[in-house]
Amino acid sequence: MAAFANLGGWIADTLVSNGLSITAVRKIMQSIGFLGPAFFLTQLSNVRTPAMAVLCMACSQASDAFSQSGSRYAGVLLRLSNTGGVPAGVFGTAATGYILQRGTWDDVFKVAVVLYIIGTLVWNIFATGEKVLD
């Protein structure tokens, strides 16, 4: 993630330098950061070896790092979302156990994919690079 977060930042800066609007760049980078992991998680049900499963998970995390280029305040937002994500981690573990009692890991990953897609839609509909609050 560290390498791809830096690569994403460089790509975002290059796109802005080449005249693309900040709003467009942030939406592009956030979309890669959400849809990339969603794609790789959907591929997990097709892999047959542990090495390919690890590769899918690594690619999921690498593409997730691009979302850190989607906001000017990515560091602050990352801290806030990690703090707010603690209850999600607690309840998510219980929900995963519940899903696994009645289904498979594919079902667990489908929930994550749906959340990534919803996040992408919300971001692309409502996000802006323009200053909204002073």
Report on the structure:
- The chain is about 80% helix and about 0% strand.
- It has about 130 residues and is mainly alpha-helical.
- It has one domain (about 1-75, about 85-125).
- α1 (about 1-15) runs antiparallel to α2 (about 20-45), α2 (about 20-45) packs antiparallel against α3 (about 50-65) and α2 (about 20-45) packs antiparallel against α5 (about 105-125).
- The longest helix has 29 residues, at about 75-100.
- It is globular, with a radius of gyration of 16 Å.
- The mean pLDDT is about 90.
Keywords:
78% helix; 134 residues; single chain; 0% strand; 5 helices; mainly alpha
Low-confidence stretches: none
SSE arrangement, N to C: HHHHH
Query: How many E-type strands?
Result: 0
Could you tell me the mean pLDDT? Answer: 88
Biggest pleated-sheet summary: none
Number of alpha- plus pi-helical segments: 5
Share of helix, binned: over 70%
Strand content bin:
under 5%
Compute the gyration radius: what is it?
16 Å
How many independent structural domains? 1
Counting helices, strands and paired strands, the structural category is mainly alpha
Oligomer: single chain
End-to-end C-alpha gap: 32 Å
* Overall geometric form: globular
